[in-house]
Amino acid sequence: MQISDRETSAIMTGMKNVSNLSTMNFQDLNGFQEQKDFIRIRSQENQTIMSKGTENFLENRTFSFWKITISNGKLYDTVYKKDKGITYEIWLSLQDIFEEVGAVLASVFAILLLNYLIGLLLIRHYSKKINGPIEKLAFEASQDSGLLEVPEAPLEVRELAINFNELVKSLQEKIESEKEFASNLSHELRTPVMAISGYISLLKRRREEHPEIVEKSLNYLEQESERLKKLIEDFLTLSRKGQIDYQEEIFTTKSLLLEIKSSFEIDSSNKIEIEGDDNLHIKTNRFALREILNILMENAIKYSPKDSMVLIKYDKKEIQVIDRGIGISDNEKAKVFNRFYQVDKSRTNHTGNGIGLAIAQQYAQIINAEIYISDNLPVGTIFHLSFKKMSEK
């Protein structure tokens, strides 16, 4: 130990300066503390001189090895020196050092404990500041009270509340949309079912008295049955989104459009024209593309005057179905793709179930295309089927 080494050097220097050891006063030695430290000096003539208490110290010595000595339950640093035939034995108490170290350790421990307590208080304070708003949000969420109150701070909790509210709004809109869909579907199905049921009841009651109503009723039942069948087919198409087997094939756009034109010209008085490159080939799902164009053509003919022209234009980027009908207002252009939505009924006498364009949009997603609407000036509507990625041959 550096401290005991310094004390030993000071004590040895003092003892060597004494010419007659028998007259040595140990109390005058610098660094020596009588009753705490002990010295034994042996001369060549075996004369022994000891400081006060050394004899008792030696008698009560219980352990001594190298530089460590234990006596009376205390620890000592042992130093042996031999100079000019004189042996010096010095035992310096380490008690003061241990007490100083203990005091330092106690101070360090106290400081660490104080820092721990302060840190604990700070952590509790700031955790309460953060957890408080979180607990409040959790409580509000558990009460099923809708949107959460957005706190100003802390920023992380504020962003959490905002994101949660956005998610809730999205879910609420989806739920409302599903409720509206179910309600509209129920209404649409109920109408033809009730009509069919009514005519069946009429036939049962009056077919013998009024046979003339049989044919009329059967025709009506056939119409309503077809309407109900179409409605169910449309509903099943919507419900099986993502389940259509997507297989691509290569064909000319013109060949498909000619098939569609032929099928509509049978029952329609509208003139249908096609404009585009006869040799343009595409690679896509033919069934899905035909369903989209069938729906767009049905919509164009339904809302166009009789004998007016419906034009189908196409190139490698898109197919357009252009009519000269009543048109669609700007605020309705996006809504018409919603299930069961119908344009302002005051502007037309045509009725429908409002599912067709929703199905067309679904098929468009399958073939990686997009449907949007623009105005055909001065009158009419243009439906654009734009291909995001279209393979050409």
TrEMBL record:
Subcellular location: Cell membrane
Molecular-function GO term, any one: ATP binding
SUPFAM superfamilies (alphabetical): ATPase domain of HSP90 chaperone/DNA topoisomerase II/histidine kinase (SSF55874), Homodimeric domain of signal transducing histidine kinase (SSF47384)
Chain ranges passing through the membrane: 101-123
EC category name: transferase
Enzyme Commission number(s) of this protein: 2.7.13.3
Annotated InterPro entries: HATPase_C_sf, HATPase_dom, His_kinase_dom, HisK_dim/P_dom, HisK_dim/P_sf, HssS/ArlS-like, Sig_transdc_His_kin-like_C
Reactions performed catalytically: ATP + protein L-histidine = ADP + protein N-phospho-L-histidine
Keywords linked to the UniProt accession: ATP-binding, Cell membrane, Kinase, Membrane, Nucleotide-binding, Phosphoprotein, Transferase, Transmembrane, Transmembrane helix, Two-component regulatory system
Domain of life: Bacteria
CDD domains noted in UniProt: HisKA
Residue ranges of coiled coil: none
Major location category of this protein: membrane
UniProt topology in membrane: Multi-pass membrane protein
Domain Histidine kinase: 184-391
GO terms for cellular component: plasma membrane
Stored Pfam families: HATPase_c, HisKA
Protein's name according to its UniProt entry: histidine kinase
